[in-house]
Amino acid sequence: MVPTDANLAGNVFGGSILAEIDRVAYIAASRHAGTGCVTASFDRVDFLSPVHVGDVVDFDATLTYVGTSSMEVWVRVRAESASGGRPRAVGEAFITMVAVDAAGRPVSVPPLVPQSAEERLRFEEGQRRMEERRRTRPPRPK
């Protein structure tokens, strides 16, 4: 992270981290979908510890749930000093991405086939979160 990403305390703005999380989620979702995607929602963003100017930041994205056109992406963020040291967990977020065609209309995506018990558990948890998002989403303007 560079000085233009910092606040007055020398920590990286959360918004800078969120922008990177969004980019990483887009890459993971669009690779799965085979088409472009848009961000539908961010939820459960947790900042666990600060990121400092000069830290090297690593983002890891995993698809946890896939519906018809929407995908939940779990992004974990780690940072370490540029001079070395152990990486530390600094944040994580769940992002919903929607696959779209050239006109911006939602399109179907391939299913996600969980292999391990851990992947099946994450899929079930993601499905519950997606159902909760649908239930609590404000109505779209007409």
List the helices and strands and how they pair.
Elements lengths: L13 H20 L3 E11 L7 E12 L3 E12 L6 E12 L17 H20 L6
Antiparallel strand pairs: 1-4, 2-3, 3-4
Please characterize this protein's 3D structure.
Strand 3 and strand 4 form a beta hairpin. This protein has a 4-stranded antiparallel β-sheet. 26% of the residues are buried. The N and C termini lie far apart (41 Å). The protein contains 2 helices and 4 strands. The mean pLDDT is 92. The protein has a single domain, classed as Thiol Ester Dehydrase, Chain A, CATH 3.10.129.10. The protein is of the alpha+beta class and 142 residues long.
The largest sheet has its strands arranged as 1-4-3-2
| The number of domains | 1
Task: Please give the CATH architecture.
Answer: Roll
Separation of termini? 41 Å
Overall strand count: 4
**Structural class label:** alpha+beta
CATH class: Alpha Beta
Proportion of residues in β-strands = 25-35%
- Give the helices and strands as they follow along the chain: HEEEEH
Helix count? 2
The CATH superfamily name is Hotdog Thioesterase
Shape: globular
Unreliable segments of 5+ consecutive residues: none
Kindly identify the CATH topology: Thiol Ester Dehydrase, Chain A
